[in-house]
Write a structure and sequence with these properties.
- The structure is a single chain.
- By secondary structure, the chain is an all-alpha fold.
- It has a domain of about 90 residues.
- It contains 7 helices and 2 strands.
- Strands 1-2 form a two-stranded parallel sheet.
- Helix 3 packs across helix 6 and helix 5 crosses helix 6.
- The longest helix has 22 residues.
- It is elongated, with a radius of gyration of 29 Å.
- The mean pLDDT is about 85.
């Protein structure tokens, strides 16, 4: 007579068979793990740039007024326009420039302006650099600003 160990029921793997669902289940998990990152990446919205009309003309006008009253005593608009500025921010998320001015300006009272005023100033700076205006305003929301880049500047 065979005991349970000899029958393969206790402590022996040699005689055991895997359940019929084990191999297909394992392959399915491996496939999902392999394909999920590619699928999720494909679902992301395409990135936008400042060339896509991410601010409105009215917003840039408000930003111009706020720039003159809050920034103009230390800065000139020309500091934020032209080739030098575009190279400095080339390829960066608009979010980082927004955060920089929001946390550091005005110099005598950093962060004192409402969040939307900083977005308005950024819209004015985009206008100074001849990026096209659109129909929607640039919001003061990190999740949106992180999805918009300054265009890459060719270094040739």
């Amino acid at each position: 007579m065979m005991n349970q160990r000899e029958q393969g029921k206790i402590g022996s793997r040699g005689n055991r068979q895997l359940p019929p669902w084990f191999l297909p289940g394992l392959l399915t998990l491996a496939l999902v793990g392999f394909l999920a990152p590619a699928f999720l990446e494909a679902q992301e919205e395409p990135r936008r740039t400042a060339l896509d009309g991410v601010y409105s003309e009215a917003q840039a006008q408000r930003g111009s007024s706020t720039f003159r009253s809050s920034c103009g005593y230390c800065h000139t608009a020309s500091e934020f326009a032209g080739e030098h500025f575009r190279r400095m921010v080339s390829g960066d998320q608009i979010y980082w420039f927004y955060e920089y001015i929001r946390f550091n300006m005005p110099q005598d009272a950093p962060g004192a302006l409402p969040a939307q005023s900083y977005a308005d100033i950024l819209a004015y700076i985009l206008e100074l650099n001849e990026f096209p205006a659109g129909s929607d305003e640039l919001p003061a929301e990190a999740s949106v600003l992180r999805g918009i880049d300054f265009p890459e500047v060719d270094d040739r």
